[in-house]
Specification:
alpha/beta, Rossmann fold, five-stranded parallel β-sheet, 9 helices, 5 strands, about 50% helix
Length: about 220
């Protein structure tokens, strides 16, 4: 099965969707090999036919030709139906992007032919995961060694590593820990992850990590 080259970007705001897709096409297409259609300026069959004409040509100096329709929910039904074949089988060396408020704003036959990228959902899920990890780690630092061992079984080490890296390199406050403490925790965390990857006893790996953690006030 070939990798999808048709995408629908939903969620966030119209400006955020536009910013995302412009950054995305920068990876694949020069200024000479991209077409951007703003549906607020025109949302009919003529705009879709122009897109199809453009993407039928090979890129001039890029890996792909990128075609974008901003806020595609404004396209007429005729225009959306005209897009179907192009979305299902994009011409060689072509990537197609539609931005839209929601998936439901487009015809189901459009969205079913595309990979859906949900900006708001992805961002919210990541933020929630990091927040939960930070709250759990705060609880671990306030607990006794026995309680720490139980709580650590629920700890997402990957998310904790991200939090520590951010705190260390961006000088962000993290649970009122000193920079030297953050660096030490991060080093021990990476050692623990290596132990877990090498299939050593999990209890031993957790103990190595927990014994070197500082304790913060429970107030």
């Amino acid at each position: 099965m070939s990798m999808s080259r048709s995408f629908v970007i939903v969620g966030a705001t119209a400006d955020e969707r536009k910013e995302f897709v412009l950054k995305e096409i920068d990876k694949y297409s020069s200024q000479f090999d991209r077409l951007i259609i703003d549906s607020y300026a025109g949302a009919g069959i003529n705009e879709v036919r122009e897109l199809q004409r453009q993407v039928s040509r090979l890129p001039l100096n890029s890996n792909f030709t990128s075609a974008v329709i901003l806020e595609a929910q404004n396209l007429s039904l005729e225009a959306q139906n005209a897009l179907l074949k192009t979305l299902e089988e994009p011409p060689s060396k072509t990537r197609l992007y539609l931005t839209s408020k929601t998936v439901d704003s487009l015809l189901p036959t459009i969205s079913s032919r595309c990979t859906i990228i949900n900006l708001r959902s992805d961002r919210t899920d990541d933020e929630t995961k990091l927040k939960n990890t930070q709250d759990l780690f705060r609880k671990i630092l306030k607990s006794s060694l026995g309680e720490r061992f139980i709580l650590t079984k629920e700890l997402n080490f990957g998310s904790l590593e991200i939090l520590l890296e951010i705190a260390l390199h961006e000088q962000a406050d993290f649970l009122s820990l000193r920079k030297s403490q953050i660096a030490e925790i991060l080093e021990n965390l990476k050692k623990t992850q290596k132990l877990l990857e090498s299939n050593v006893n999990k209890k031993l790996a957790y103990e190595v990590f927990l014994l070197n953690l500082p304790t913060i006030s429970s107030s």
